[in-house]
Design brief:
Elements lengths: L4 E5 L25 H9 L10 E4 L6 E2 L6 H4 L1 H4 L5 E2 L3 H6 L4 E6 L3 H8 L4 H14 L3 E7 L5 H13 L2 H6 L6 E5 L35 E2 H8 L14 E5 L4 E4 L9 E4 L5 H10 L3 H7 L3 H8 L7 E2 L1 H13 L7
Parallel strand pairs: 1-2, 1-9, 5-6, 6-7
Antiparallel strand pairs: 3-4, 8-12, 9-10, 10-11
Helix pairs in contact: 12-13
Length: 333
C-alpha cells in the first residue's frame, strides 16, 4: 500500500545558529517563488507514494521563537496543534485552533541562551513569548538542554520560573506549566558539544525531578559494557508515513537524522526522478546501508569510550555511535 508523504521545505532559512541543531547548519538562502510547487509536482506522478498530504517549513521564519517544523500558512490548524513553535502574530490563532501549550527552548540565562541560539535578544524574546502565551491562556513549556557548562544556570532558570509563578498562573486557567531538562541527542551540531556533555554524577539534585526519564539514562561507560555483545542494528524505518526534508539546494533527506552527505537520498534537480523515488521507497541511502551491516556491539566496541561518564539515553547513544562510524572515512558505503 502507498504511504502518505509529507514534505518539509527550507523555504526561508533560519535567523538562528543553534549549537544543538540536530539537522546541522545550512546556508541561509530564500528559495525562489515557485520552488515549492516544483517540489510538490516532482512527487505527484508517483502512486507508490500517496499524494502529498502537506508541506511544512524545515527551519523557522525570521521573527519566530521556539522549536518545531510547521507552517500555518500551508497546512493550517493540523500543523500547529503540536504547539512546538511560536510566531507572535499567530498566538491568538493558536488558541482558536485548540493549542494548549507551546514549547520554548532555553540554554541557561540570558548570555548563554543568546550564545547557544546564535542571536542576541533570544532570551528576552522567550520571556516576552511566555507572557504573551499566558495572556492568551496558553501554557508555556520551558525546555532546557543541559551540559557541563550550563548546569548551574539551569537551576537559576528553574528558580526564575518559580519567581514568575508560571505554574500557578497556568493553573488559574486550567492548564499545566511544564519545566523539563534533558541532555539532547548527540548528532548534527550537538555532536560538537560532546566534550561538555553532562556527566552522570554532575546533574544538580534540584533538576533531577524535572529531568526526562532520568532513571533510564546511563553513562557512556555503562552503555559500552551493556552493548558489547549486542547483535542488533541501529534501525530507522518509515512505518506509517514518509517525511522528507528538502534543503534550499534541493537535496532530499529522510527526517531520521542530520542532513549530512551520507544521509542524503539525492537531489531533485540533478537525479533522475524514477531513481530518486526508488531510493525513497526502498530506503536506499548510504547511512542505512552502513547501519544494516554493523551490529550495535561492533559499534560500541570500536567507537565507544569505556571510561566516559557522559550521560546518554540508549537510543541516543546508539545513534551517536552510528554517526561516528559514518564519519569514519575508512568505512566504505
Amino acid at each position: 500500500m502507498p504511504k502518505p508523504l509529507d514534505l518539509v521545505l527550507d523555504l526561508y532559512g533560519c535567523p538562528n545558529r543553534c549549537l544543538h541543531c540536530w539537522i546541522g547548519h545550512m546556508p541561509n538562502r530564500r528559495m525562489r517563488d515557485g520552488d515549492d510547487r516544483f517540489i510538490v509536482d516532482f512527487f505527484r506522478p508517483y502512486r507508490l507514494l500517496q499524494l502529498v498530504t502537506g508541506a511544512g517549513l524545515l527551519r523557522r521564519l525570521p521573527g519566530t521563537v521556539g522549536e518545531g517544523l510547521a507552517s500555518v500558512g500551508q497546512r493550517g490548524p493540523e500543523a500547529v496543534r503540536t504547539g512546538e513553535f511560536l510566531a507572535y502574530p499567530y498566538v491568538p490563532f493558536l488558541r482558536e485552533v485548540g493549542v494548549r501549550g507551546v514549547q520554548l527552548t532555553f540554554f541557561g540565562l540570558e548570555t548563554l541562551t543568546d550564545r547557544y541560539v546564535g542571536r542576541k535578544g533570544t532570551f528576552r524574546e522567550l520571556l516576552q513569548a511566555t507572557e504573551l502565551l499566558l495572556a492568551h491562556r496558553i501554557a508555556p513549556r520551558w525546555q532546557a538542554f543541559i551540559n557541563e557548562e550550563n548546569k548551574d544556570e539551569l537551576v537559576e532558570l528553574l528558580r526564575l520560573s518559580e519567581t514568575l509563578q508560571l505554574r500557578e498562573r497556568c493553573e488559574a486557567f486550567g492548564e499545566e506549566f511544564r519545566f523539563f531538562v534533558h541532555e539532547g541527542s548527540c548528532d548534527g551540531e550537538n555532536r560538537k558539544l560532546y566534550g561538555i556533555r553532562i556527566c552522570k554524577g554532575d546533574v544538580p539534585a534540584e533538576l533531577k525531578p524535572y529531568y526526562l526519564d532520568f532513571d533510564r539514562l546511563a553513562s557512556e561507560r555503562e552503555w559500552v559494557e551493556r552493548l558489547w555483545d549486542d547483535f542488533s542494528h541501529v534501525t530507522f524505518h518509515n512505518v506509517d508515513r514518509i517525511v522528507l526534508q528538502i534543503s534550499n539546494r534541493f537535496d532530499v533527506y529522510f527526517n531520521f537524522f542530520e542532513m549530512s552527505e551520507r544521509w542524503k537520498i539525492g537531489n531533485l534537480k540533478t537525479d533522475a526522478p524514477d531513481e530518486l523515488v526508488r531510493r525513497v521507497a526502498e530506503e536506499d541511502v548510504p547511512a542505512l546501508c552502513v547501519a544494516r551491516n554493523r551490529t550495535v556491539g561492533e559499534l560500541a566496541g570500536q567507537y565507544g569510550d569505556p571510561h566516559s561518564e557522559r550521560l546518554f539515553a540508549r537510543g541516543d547513544y546508539e545513534e551517536y555511535l552510528l554517526n561516528l562510524c559514518l564519519y569514519d572515512q575508512s568505512i566504505p558505503v
